[in-house]
Amino acid sequence: MPEMEGKNVLVTGGAGFIGSHLCDSLLTEPVSKLVAVDNLFLGKESNLNDAKQDDRFIFRNLDVTNYEGLRDTIVLCDIDVIFHFAVIPLEASLEKPRWSFEQNVKMTENISEIVRTADKKITLIACSSSEVYGSALYTPMDENHPLLPHTPYAASKAASDLLVYSYYKTSGIDTAIVRPFNNYGPRQNEGSYAGVIPKTIKRILDGHKPVIYDDGKQTRDFIYVKDTADWTVGIYKNDNTRGEIINLASGKQIPIEVVIKGICKELNYNGEIEYREKRPGDVRKHEGCVRKAVKLLNFNANVDYSEGIKQTVQWYVNNCT
Ligand SMILES: NC(=O)c1ccc[n+]([C@@H]2O[C@H](COP(=O)([O-])OP(=O)(O)OC[C@H]3O[C@@H](n4cnc5c(N)ncnc54)[C@H](O)[C@@H]3O)[C@@H](O)[C@H]2O)c1
User: Fold this and answer.
1) Cα 41 to ligand 1 centroid, rounded to whole Å
2) Residues paired with 82 in a beta bridge
3) Potential cystine with 154: which of 149, 168, 177, 197 (Cβ 3.0-4.6 Å)?
4) Would 49 be classed as within a structural domain?
């Protein structure tokens, strides 16, 4: 089985939410060198403050759509493993669909091509998203659930997955695709394009009413970010995962209304909640099936939602007030 010992590792989107936690997980391993690249479109260098304490860690401000720049970094740093986590987020794809789609696919195209043409074996662990499934046609949603993306973001993720898979089939690149459901935890962007949890916490901390779009009965499957980061490293370390797409989820549905009311409770907010019209592309129901991850990795989501949300709210209270 592949080990991390002595490996030179690259994380794209390393200054982002999941990417920065992945850097922290990787630095608990005996890697030789860890290079995080990010163009800081949404990521923050401060997300890497812990990683920067480690001598093996290097940050590069680099645009992953820049093929030559990326290839030069990979060659110069003698990279053995790439975790591809850079992305333009869902919300941006509603404003700028063509640009977002092109950026996300271009990044995956560049990385796949660099891996294919490299002089040495480079393993690619590519990050997908449960958004590729659209609303659940059945639950729990396994990896064979039809791909019915609702948004240009989701379409770009599905296209990226198919591209990586096609390189696996035609060129035999060493790859696995990790497909996380909704992540939450410290360091998720709370500014523009924020997800529901950081946005709600920030609104309450800033003295605004929390907002529920639609009736709030729409569900998501939430997984704590550290679980995603740790199990992604586990996917690299198990070569039975190669050529596979693997869901990472809690296997539980939580209605958005419950999430928002839970945050209100954590923050002792007793004021009103504002209901707004449904947003375009919002999926109605999500619940991941993790049977494959259990079989391959003995997967288990270690952090329970009730504990994870407490830690998350506390982090924003400490860092955003
Ligand atoms: N957050 C979730 O709930 C969730 C769920 C499932 C899958 N994912 C996937 O996880 C991965 C990471 O998402 P995230 O939530 O951490 O997002 P994020 O926005 O926090 O991180 C993405 C990072 O990519 C960087 N980036 C964007 N364009 C770039 C470019 N051209 N060059 C270099 N860097 C660039 C951004 O600056 C950002 O730091 C993505 O593949 C996403 O699709 C996220």
Assistant:
1) 9
2) 10, 124
3) 149
4) yes
Number of domains in the chain: 1
Ligand 1, closest atom to CA 183?
3
Query: Is the CB of 85 within 6 Å of ligand 1?
Result: yes
Provide the 10 A C-beta neighbour count for residue 215: 11
User: Quick check: is 258 in a domain?
Assistant: no
pLDDT digits (tens, 9 = 90+) for 268-297: 999 999 999 999 999 999 999 999 999 999
Output the CA angle 74-79-81, nearest 5 degrees.
Answer: 120
Residue of minimum CA distance from atom 18 in ligand 1: 16
pLDDT at res. 217: 97
Q: Domain residues for 230?
A: 8-184+223-249
Report how far residue 55's alpha carbon sits from residue 157's, in angstroms, rounded to the nearest whole number: 33
CATH number, domain at 66?
Answer: 3.40.50.720
* 2-44 pLDDT per residue, tens: 999 999 999 999 999 999 999 999 999 999 999 999 999 999 9
What pLDDT does 192 receive?
86
Contact 161, 245 (CB under 8 A): yes
Q: Encoding tokens for residue 48? A: 């890497």
Identified catalytic residue from 67, 133, 138, 153: 153
Query: Can you tell me the mean pLDDT for 121-147?
Result: 98
Question: Is residue 277 assigned to a domain?
Answer: no
Q: What's the gap in Å between 149 CA and the centre of ligand 1?
A: 18
pLDDT of res. 179? 99
User: Which pLDDT belongs to residue 321?
Assistant: 75
